């Protein structure tokens, strides 16, 4: 898996990828977040609850999507993904840190978690103390694949609630998802039920 990912990254460099091209591609892409995502992020940010976004893709593209499609940055959101490095002319020259792929996302949950960069192409973001994640004993895990349940393996938690989003081939996969996740939502469901769940959990904690 790491060899395949490494070759893919190499082709991106060889192909002369620039961050201007990525910005244009994101601008032209029909990308939409689930309804309620922004509200969820805002709710968690107000309460200083950290959010980790896991992806075997590219952190820089995720950040650009957030910038262009959400038009807001969240100080509590950290990304666990592959980070690109660009030269002064905006050309991709390398990748930073360990390779993140679909089978090892949990191994790097803490050492690869990085805050959102303010501008596309930034080589360094603000310093981030992972203690805000390490000291958390409760985890709310959201995923659309059963393998996503492993994302919390690198965290030392006492309680975990898992929410699965089953979007395709529902009839054949529903039983497996129900057995694996604590809660399952179907058909690209919006995030409002999760917002309500988080609100209830925070309310109970306050009491």
Please describe the topology of this protein.
Layout lengths: L1 H13 L4 H10 L8 H10 L4 E8 H12 L6 E10 L5 E5 L17 E2 L15 H4 L3 E6 L15 E8 L3 H11 L2 E4 L5 H15 L1
Parallel strand pairs: 1-2, 5-6, 6-7
Antiparallel strand pairs: 2-3, 2-4
Outline type: globular
Biggest sheet character: 4 strands, mixed
Q: Strand percentage, roughly?
A: 15-25%
What fraction, in percent, of the residue positions are helical?
25-40%
Mean pLDDT: 85
- Cα(first) to Cα(last) distance is 46 Å
Radius of gyration, CA atoms, in whole angstroms: 18 Å
Continuous helix count: 7
Q: Would you tell me the structural class of the helices and strands?
A: alpha/beta
Provide the low-confidence segments as ranges.
none
Helix and strand pattern: HHHEHEEEHEEHEH
- Number of separate strands: 7
Protein name: 5'-nucleotidase
Describe this structure in words.
It is a single chain. This protein is 36% helix and 21% strand. The protein is an alpha/beta fold and 207 residues long. Strands 1, 2, 3 and 4 form a four-stranded mixed beta sheet that branches. Helix 2 (19-28) crosses helix 4 and helix 3 (37-46) packs parallel to helix 7. The longest helix is centred in the C-terminal third of the chain and has 15 residues, at 192-206. It starts with a helix and ends with a helix. The mean pLDDT is 85.
